[in-house]
Amino acid sequence: SLILKSSSQYPLPQGVKLSYGTAGFRADASILESTVFRAGILAALRSLKTQSLTGLMITASHNKVTDNGVKIADPSGGMLTQEWEPFADAIANSPTPQHFVQLIDEFMKKENIRFDGVRSAEILLGRDTRPSGESLLEAAKQGVYSIVGATATDMGILTTPQLHWMVRARNKDMKATELDYFVQLSSSFRFLVDLTPNQIKMSKTDGKLIVDGANGVGGEKLEVLKKMLNNMDIEVRNSGKEGVLNEGVGADYVQKEKVVPQGFHLKDVGIRCASLDGDADRLVYFSVQSNNTSKIDLVDGDKILSLFALFIKEQLSILKMEGDDHVDENYEARLGVVQTAYANGASTDYLKQLGLEVVFTPTGVKYLHEKAAEYDIGIYFEANGHGTILFSESFLSWLNARNNELSSKSKGLEQQKAVLRLLAVSNLINQAVGDALSGLLLVEAILQYKGWSIHDWSELYHDLPSRQLKVKVVDRTAVVTANAETVVVRPPLIQEAINVEVAKYPRGRSFIRPSGTEDVIRVYAEASIQAAADSLANSVATLAD
Ligand code: NG1
Ligand code: ZN
């Protein structure tokens, strides 16, 4: 068969064992050709099964430049369905072409996938700026083409969220080129900013934003957006023309190390700064500390989430205002906030005190996304800066209907503005996956709306001091957790011991879990002062060892 012939050209290197995990396949780029070839086949099979377009992205996000990776975008624009992950693992590790072909045959029978469907497979391909991306993209194409009738369209160098956005848009029969993406983001941003109340149009938010592009793909894309936004006052640094991808730069570095990225200095004190990761699906803000210019005041994913939640809640309360004779037309929009155990405890307290419903899922975007989709408006973020806002179809149609109705009345102008703001947010934010560029524009629009400086925003609440550690263990799967990873159920007795340690510290909280991407157990601890968080993390790490 075609698959047998082409897969013999992409043999699996000796001793390679890969797992699809929470972030697709990732490894040193030199061993990934066969994996990416097979992922091309996987994307084509997924397209045949769903009779829809799928996507394939070549990136290793915030990992080092010599790494690379591959992930599949499902027809919704979200991550590959979890039901297919075991099959993804099986084909990536299949030792011989014969075995590989047999696996595929069996899977196609089981899933009832046939080549004689109405549509043949169609896949959009994208890659980040890594030098290994070009040849890996070729391998992906060969994988796609070994499925009869399948077509692959190379969309070029993209951010991960751009590719996911395109897949989602195409499957909704919307225009889905890169230009369409930029037009949608820039026009909805402008629309939202035009709805800012007049009295605060001149505000502390004026003045430039400096963005660290992680020496990756995000910087150049942001330059395009900036031009479409009338040369908005954004200065892009680390756009990849000189420095090395993710080396001493980027959202992952800034959030984990809490230090300034390369290229930022004393003269940036007081200025609003932001940092993207290597494929621009994570975003954090920060400002350079005046007393110690290597240190930063971090505004992480939890605080971006809090800003979004606050804004949306305000718009919903404007909608509920009386003074209109049609109070019964209020739709009880279910607003939900989704976090993981890594969310700073102070952020959770803040959100709950706003009266919001806060729920927790295990680490990994796919879990957060799935949970957020249960609400009319679901907002999710990981502390590391990956997150977005999801709107239900029924809520969006209600908003549109409400807008039409309010247009024909003289009353209810404030309500109509709130409706229009929510609609603009739904167009601006990337509802397929977390997107640093669309997230950044939403942050900027909300800061302008509120007339806030980054300092005002940062003061929403004060983070509890926290510490993260890694413990290398022989077998990380020995640790099994429950309740969104907050409780260890195996090995026995560890949880009791953690509880004893936690009880020693005011506002103490700690948990351990096996990493999904590295061969380690991660330890997280927080407490009222840094020394206590450090010491709690250290004692829990000894328990995990
Ligand atoms: P693991 O290695 O499972 O902790 C890390 C991040 C996740 C997510 C994934 C995928 C932390 C503590 N964990 O997962 O949030 O981003 O990588 O990239 O940051
Ligand atoms: Zn990323």
UniProtKB/TrEMBL annotation:
This is Phosphoacetylglucosamine mutase. It is an enzyme of class 5 (isomerase). Pfam families: AMG1_II (PF21405), AMG1_III (PF21404), PGM_PMM_I (PF02878), PGM_PMM_IV (PF00408). Residues 483-542 form the Alpha-D-phosphohexomutase C-terminal domain. Interconverts GlcNAc-6-P and GlcNAc-1-P. GO terms for molecular function: metal ion binding; phosphoacetylglucosamine mutase activity. The lineage of its organism: Eukaryota, Viridiplantae, Streptophyta, Embryophyta, Tracheophyta. InterPro entries: A-D-PHexomutase_a/b/a-I, A-D-PHexomutase_a/b/a-I/II/III, A-D-PHexomutase_C, A-D-PHexomutase_C_sf, AMG1_II, AMG1_III, PAGM. Keywords: Isomerase, Magnesium, Metal-binding, Phosphoprotein. CDD domains: PGM3. Pathway: Nucleotide-sugar biosynthesis; UDP-N-acetyl-alpha-D-glucosamine biosynthesis; N-acetyl-alpha-D-glucosamine 1-phosphate from alpha-D-glucosamine 6-phosphate (route I): step 2/2. Its EC number is 5.4.2.3. Its cofactor is Mg(2+). The keyword Endoplasmic reticulum does not apply. Binds 1 Mg(2+) ion per subunit. Belongs to the phosphohexose mutase family. The active site is at 61 (phosphoserine intermediate). Mg(2+) binds at residues 61, 277, 279, 281. It catalyses: N-acetyl-alpha-D-glucosamine 1-phosphate = N-acetyl-D-glucosamine 6-phosphate.
